[in-house]
Amino acid sequence: MANLTLAIDDDTLRAARIRALEQGTSVNAVVRDYLMSYARPENPRDVLRRIFERADRSSASSGPGGRTWTREEIYDRWDRRPRT
């Protein structure tokens, strides 16, 4: 396993250590986990699953009257977009 040296200001590192401690982990583990997820592209199915899970938990809606547009109106509007 390779070692990595980072330059981080003291206040940021102190706050990160406190937060990591509160979460029962270490700054090293947080950085390692972040870099692993950053380096490996996510499976699109996993991304969609998380999006749908968030949508299910969301209280957002289109209001008491519901949608005011139809599918045909959306496509008609899309067809009239200026082309670049």
Write a brief caption for the model:
The protein has 4 helices and no strands.
Could you please describe the fold and organization of this structure?
This protein is mostly helical and 84 residues long. It is built from 4 helices and no strands. The radius of gyration is 22 Å and the shape is elongated.
What tags apply to this protein structure?
84 residues; 4 helices; 58% helix
Secondary-structure map:
Elements: H1 10-22, H2 27-39, H3 44-57, H4 71-79
**SSE sequence, one letter per element:** HHHH
Q: What is Rg? A: 22 Å
Helical content band:
55-70%
Number of helices: 4
Number of strands: 0
Question: What share of the residues does DSSP label as strand, in percent?
Answer: under 5%
Q: Tell me the major beta sheet.
A: none
Distance between the termini: 49 Å
